[in-house]
Write a structure and sequence with these properties.
alpha/beta, Rossmann fold, seven-stranded parallel beta sheet, four-stranded parallel beta sheet, elongated
């Protein structure tokens, strides 16, 4: 049986159902899958697929605890395991001369211990920063396997703006790369990646057959229902939706109602903006939903909006 490792920043994430679907798809096709995540997120509102496939049993969390006492307590069994399984990994992870504070803090011990002695046919690295981290993990743990890196919006926008050299080492690896559009592919190639190893996969982790078309009709006097779903971050453009709705409220003859599904760092700002624009009577915030519940809710909408824009820090889709 072929073995695949998924290395991700956060798992499971309610806003990244496509990641869960990728794991499920690989399992359905007969692959053995392990998941390595730097952070754990609350499983509330996570897709039912996560539980159906018992993905928690396949997941190892490799992030370093901030609390020093907890860190030391959790580090001890890792040290003992590595002494028995892979002493070389232990000594490399603690090599202060080569890795400085990252070794002294035990960060690289936590990152690398789970990979010691593992072999994979494919290691799928989800986002550029995770891929850059994994190169150090590979150096320390000596893990073998072909690399596949998926780039996402901020990987080729904000992160490169903040650090133009962030992918210098990644460009020199034997990894293949996946991007979501030809536009993103051009940006990645322009950064110096080998165009022969950058592939556009426009839809991944989404079962389009699970979202059947439904013809929308509206009766005289019926409220026109509109919705948007996503993380409340600047690049999603949800503030622009509110400004547009304020214009619609002034000019439209038909009653309408708008639903936001999701949440995030701009939650309070968007709610205040809703009040300031006198939209409280036509806008509601539904919070996060399991994808199954969200899809049922959206089937009752007449219109779905999904704007996008470049954030002030350069982040974009």
């Amino acid at each position: 049986m072929k073995k695949i490792a998924f290395v991700v920043g956060v798992f499971p994430a309610v806003s990244e159902t496509w990641m869960i679907n990728q794991v499920a798809g690989a399992l359905d096709r007969g692959f053995d899958v392990d998941i390595y995540s730097f952070e754990r997120q609350d499983e509330k509102n996570v897709s039912d697929v996560y539980r159906k496939y018992k993905m928690s049993e396949r997941t190892r969390y490799i992030g370093m605890p901030e609390n020093k006492i907890v860190r030391i307590a959790l580090a001890l069994p890792k040290i003992i395991r590595l002494l028995l399984v892979s002493p070389g990994t232990l000594f490399k992870s603690l090599n202060v001369g080569e890795y400085g504070r990252n070794a002294l803090s035990l960060k690289f011990l936590f990152w690398s211990e789970a990979f010691a002695g593992k072999k994979y046919d494919l290691i799928h690295l989800h986002d550029g920063v995770i891929a850059a981290r994994f190169l150090t993990i590979r150096d320390i743990a000596g893990i073998k396997g072909k690399l596949l890196t998926s780039f996402y919006g901020q990987d080729v926008s904000r992160r490169v703006k903040e650090n133009p050299h962030i992918y210098d080492r990644l460009k020199k690896t034997d990894s293949e790369f996946i991007v979501m559009s030809d536009y993103m592919r051009k940006r990645v190639v322009d950064m110096g990646f080998d165009e022969k190893r950058v592939h556009t996969v426009s839809i991944f982790g989404i079962d389009v057959d699970a979202h059947p078309f439904k013809e929308r009709t509206i009766s005289p006097g019926e409220t026109f229902e509109i919705a948007a779903m996503g993380r409340f971050v600047e690049k999603k453009g949800f503030d622009d939706i509110l400004r547009a709705l304020a214009i619609v409220k002034q000019k439209a003859n038909r009653k309408f109602h708008f639903s936001f599904i999701g949440g995030g760092e701009l939650d309070q700002k968007l709610r205040k903006m809703t009040t300031d624009l006198d939209l409280d009577d036509v806008v509601s915030y539904k919070g996060y939903m399991k994808i199954e519940d969200a899809m049922k809710y959206l089937m009752g909408m007449h219109l779905y909006l999904q704007p996008s824009k470049m954030a002030s820090d350069g982040d974009q889709e």
